């Protein structure tokens, strides 16, 4: 419960999302997941994000955090629910694609 409260507070404090995307594509290559959302970001982009990857995010499945993100991602994709994604500011999982810190799935 404490994690969810912290997660919600994170989004309230950062104003992480100004648009309402859904997951449109999920690719897994070895242990890297690259997913695409329906709307490209125009603000809050990490400096490492390339112009053609503004609608993409990438993370590794090699960590516990990555496995948790993957579960949330698959749920969001299957239900076509709106997602809120907070970025880490780095592109360490895949060049030119920002790594998400958190993925929240709208329940309504």
Instruction: Write the CATH architecture name.
Output: Beta Barrel
CATH class: Mainly Beta
Query: Any low-confidence stretches, pLDDT <50, length ≥5?
Result: 1-18
Query: What is the domain total for the residues?
Result: 1
Q: What structural class do you assign from the helix and strand content? A: alpha+beta
- Taking all Cα atoms into account, the compactness measure Rg is 13 Å
Our count of helices gives 2
Q: So what's the overall shape?
A: globular
Distance between the termini: 20 Å
Strand order of the largest sheet: 1-2-3
The biggest beta sheet reads: 3 strands, antiparallel
Helix share, percent = 25-40%
The tally of beta strands, per DSSP, is: 5
Order of helices and strands: HEEEHEE
Q: What does the average pLDDT come to?
A: 85
% residues in beta strands:
25-35%
